[in-house]
Amino acid sequence: MKKLMKKLEALLEKGGTKKDIILLLISGISLILSLTGLNPFPFDIVWVSVILCGVPIILEAIIGLVTSFDIKADVLVSIALIASICIGEDFAAGEVAFIMQLGGLLEDLTVAKARAGIEKLVHLSPRTARVITEGKEKIISAEEVAVDDLLRVLPGETVPADGVIISGQTSVNQAVMTGESLPVDKAVGDEVFSGTVNQFGAFDMKAAKAGEDSSIQRMIRLVQSADAGKAEIVGIADRWATWIVVIALSAAALTWLISGEIIRAVTILVVFCPCALVLATPTAVMAAIGNATKHGFLVKEGDALERLSTVSKIMFDKTGTLTNGEPKVIKVSSLAKQLSDKEIFALCAAAEQLSEHPLGKAVVSSYKKTDNTPILPCDNFQMIPGRGVRAEVQGKAVLAGNREMLTEANISLPDFVLEETEDYLSKGCTVIYVSLDRSLSGYIVLSDTLRTESINMIDSLKKLNVQPVLLTGDNERAASYIAEQLHIEEVHANCLPEDKMKQIEFYSTRNEKVCMIGDGVNDAPALKKANVGIAMGGVGSDIAVEAADIALVNDDVKELPHLIALSKRMMKTIKLNMTFSMTLNFIAIILAITGTLNPIAGALVHNSGSVLVIINSALLLNWQKK
Length: 626
Hints:
25 helices
């Protein structure tokens, strides 16, 4: 018997949303034709609604009872349907079945069924590795790499394992691990992590962690474990179903015994069907989702807004979330009397114009935006991985790079210059020193700039009694500087993906609800683990968006306070809907017990309650925070 029930359950689950909508449209038309008397068929057309909407409800109720003795709202509805049909009240049966299926469809539409975030994260895992054995290079599967293997990584390749560089210099894009937009220069003795991308120079490394112990694999496991702990939405009517069924059956049985009129008992069952209660939550959620969409939010999880209404902390990743995620030139300083700041900028842009380094591209891009003068041509361009570039501009030798590059070229940096630039470095900026004919001539400062709306947004969140927390892979000084600008009191620096998850777990132990906002692959585990995850849909990675419950499509973070306020308003609407629906049901029951209502009138009364619930929920569509 249980095998048969499982087959029936699987058969029911194969129906799709489009099919459900079509069946509901047909059922709705049949009810209207039956009510208006415009039935063109030789049979009562209301049976179309009874069969299309009622039979699935009855089957679901039977399956739940037989397989796991699961008493849901479907049980009471099924009893009411069968009882109504037995006494000839077919319209009441069709109308109740239609409303219940409509509520079920709305709830299904608010719940995300499947996401592909973990699969996309898996695709970031390195596929192959270049292992060096007895001086010979051999390509093997990344899964075959063992600890202490000697590996070679060429420009553009993904680092196959965690380890330490033993020869070579390069710059590595570590966004997958730290979320930081700027590449990190690496040299002998520096650590590199699996899944990060080597951008320029080739290097040899010794594997320290490989396979399942590597950083990228740990991140995948973090995402999977965090996802498993997130609860799915549960219908309020189903939570209360056992009590509803017991009360309804008891009231109906007592009324039949006392009055001797079965029609009164059936009317009680009809008006006790929790149609308005079933619609109370999904209609409000759908309307709130529609409102959120107008403000640039794509809500992917049905209960995300419900969870969002309870959060007391919002954790922000810095890069790409509170900042623009792209380095820009914020300062140009000439140290040579014969050269202006503008001329230093022009020389650096000329030297960097052939560079593939993100910082070089940022210099060129910033120059083009601030100066209409064409970039000067350069000759003999040479890129030095982990250091900078050298080139000839107008017959003069130009070096543009970091402090190590100038030191290796025997170009000294005066103490006052080091003091000036150290102040910028402590704020998380990057400094490019510019030398002309082996003489220090100036420097350029690049930084990831704050979004203009970030400060006001943070202040608005505080007014909603939601405390912001900054999580970043930056060093402590840079993190503190950003937090001070944004009026954020709580800061956590040097954060890797597991560190962000630990912070969320820490707050969970204190029964605090947390919302995480991020944009990078490294934020995916935290986005999954948090009570609510919000991803920056424009600048964010696909994996971050897939991992989140909500995506901010246009990256306009100033709308975040509206979303929080909307979630709280939605919960007030849901509570009002539920209170109204339950009150209406009990009034209708009293009228049914006294014989004032018959099944059809009872169906229409509780149907009007469903309509009022929908109208109240629809007010959320255009709700605006004052």
